[in-house]
Amino acid sequence: MDKPNPFFRVFSWLWTGVDGLRKILHLILLLLIFLLFFGLNAESPLSYPSGSALYIQPYGALVEELSGDPYDRAIAEVLGDGLPQTRVSDVVSALAYARDDERIEMVYLDLSTTGGAGLSKLQTIAAAIEDFRTSGKPVIANADFMGQSGYYLAAHADEIYLHPDGSILLRGYGRYQTFYKDAIELLRIDWNVFRVGTHKSYVEPYTRMDMSDEYRADTTRIVDQLWSMYRDAVVTARGLEEGALDDFATNLVEHVTATGGDVAEAALEFGLIDGLLTRNEMRDYMVAQVGESDWPQDSFNAIGMHDYLAQMDLFAGGPAGAGNVAVVIASGDIMFGEQSPGNIGADSTAALLRRARLDESVHAVVLRVDSPGGSAFAAEVIADEVKALRAAGKPVVASMSSVAASGGYSISMHADKILANSATITGSIGVFGMFPTYQRTLAAIGITTDGVGTTPWTGQFQPNREMTEETRQLLQLFVEDTYDDFITDVAISRGLDKDAVDAIGQGQIWTGVEAMQNGLVDGIGGLRSAVELAAELAELEPGNFGTFVIEQELSPTEQMIVDFLTVAARTGVDLSRWVDTPDILSRLARGLDQRLDSMLRFNDPKGMYQHCLCDLN
Q: Does residue 192 contact residue 467 with C-beta atoms inside 8 Å?
């Protein structure tokens, strides 16, 4: 064999050397970057002077679980473009930490950006505020404008202040639904509907132009109870006269007219608030309470809720004790397959429950449910994992948030125990299916469909062909069988007579109090009560068990990127220029997409759904 050319041998040695040097320099550069990164990230814990206020500013909707893919959401939050949402558990945890933290003098509750929330979520935070106040530390609430949700929280504070040009609007509870039957007919669409349940109202917008008597009666009964709970809690917390809140809300125009059109002044005269202060006056008032801050200037000594939680969670450490109670959150519509947080996926949520079953440190599980339902098949997949947990000797407690109805009840009923909040909306035990066809629409523009098949079913279940009577009969049989399975499972799980379940089923909705009276839940209580009950069922020693949430997590690479961007933001890098500000058309398109998404994204393999129109506000 010929020897290699000396020139090429020398060149090869040089290239190998250069390439090796490149790799070494590359490694050194990476090491320097990581040392810089971790050095910045390992900064001393955020300090704040003793006697500071904990600054809590709930932003947007109050939710059980932040929506969206964890990585996309984390990046958006770092860039300042996150969804307007605040997790209820974050507010509750911050208040619990601050209660016993000697450095925290008081809580400053800024409610100007607080969005809507189910009453049960408001009750949970209000209870945490009341618990904080047992420490003797005050809670000061303030807002430029205050909606119904914000005012409920403010009512449980020691003092409430409103901007002189602000307002309070208490709308009460209700539901106004858009109906599409005539539009569907104008478009020549055959909206084939199959259901079981005289009160199963989800399909009504597609089959009627107004509420049925059953739908109206159910909704009226529920909203009256919710308003009564809201009104009584506020009247008690503020020490108002009986009927004062009803008077203010019902006769708002009369009361505002009496103050020359000044809503804020009317609220002050009615005793809903304690004073009217501009932003500068409010700042001066807080400076007098806790002192002026060095940074940022022209403000009062305070630490923000998220910074405070990050520090306190770090100090608190991870789960500890002889055993742990895991919390799995099931929030949003129930759908087939993998879903991001904010929706419940048959595969993704089942995987979380499976992690709890396989984790030897987990002795019990709390399934926190905040869902109006969705795919019947997906609910069954999740229910199978709940049963598997119990078969493995790990007790399960279902904890109902604002809504745990229809499919939301279906995934709850197999737990060892079910706790609901008094304002929880649950029940809606019923089933429906919908299959629109648009062959008449196509015919109107000169398009038809024709063909042959080996059986009567070959050309069925196509949206461009009229549904045959046999197909309609088959789908109705599917729905009736699914409903029969539903009430049978409820009867077995809850130890009730099947006919009794049918009587309280039929799509009827109930508050948590009514559900307990009907035997659908075991008691009234929030997430904390559910965790304590789960620990008791697992025979864990009180006070000697840990609690942690099992959730979808970032990969190590994703976490590193998020951490890097977070450090960059903390060191003054302006990341906002990376964010596109949507124009008005983009915002409108996004809103329309969200509305259509709730109808178009359902993907049950059999087209069978357990869903409830339960978003009462």
A: yes
